[in-house]
Amino acid sequence: MGALSQAEVYRLIREANARGERVVVATVAHTRGSTPQRRGAKMLFFENGEVAGTVGGGCVEAEVWAEARETMRSGRPGLYAFRLTADEASEQGMVCGGVMEIFLDVWDPEARG
Q1: pTM, whole model, 2 decimals?
Q2: What Cα–Cα distance (Å) separates residue 77 from each residue in 5, 57, 59, 68, 112?
Q3: CB neighbours of 69 closer than 8 A, spacing ≥ 6?
Q4: Which of 16, 23, 33, 41 matches a 20 to 30 Å C-alpha distance to 106?
């Protein structure tokens, strides 16, 4: 899973919406300290369980995935903070130790017409 271009993001959303599927878009909105991705990085979560892109990998993506499932279910967007403390990072073998704020939004074909 790598970074997505803007064109890829919109193409994948359009294709999923054409199939009648919701897509949760995770966007890195803000970072402080050492983080695996910078502002603007995107990850897409599809109703069928597939994903595209990355917001950082490892434990961050597992936490984002959990919030994305809830966002998919509820249909409510939200801004979430994920802390990558130095202790947690070293336990996971990572070099990060910052904070990432990630915005989760739902692209729903029925709501967007």
Answers
A1: 0.85
A2: 22, 21, 21, 9, 14
A3: 45
A4: 33
Each residue of 35-59: pLDDT tens digit? Answer: 888 899 999 999 999 999 999 877 7
For the stretch 52-86, what's the b/e string if a residue is b when 16 or more beta carbons lie within 10 angstroms of its beta carbon? bbbbbeebbbebbeebbeebbeeeeeeebebebee
Domain ranges of the chain: 6-112
Q: List 83's β-bridge partners, or say none.
A: 99
Which residue carries 């300290």 as its tokens? 33
What does the chain come to in residues? Answer: 113
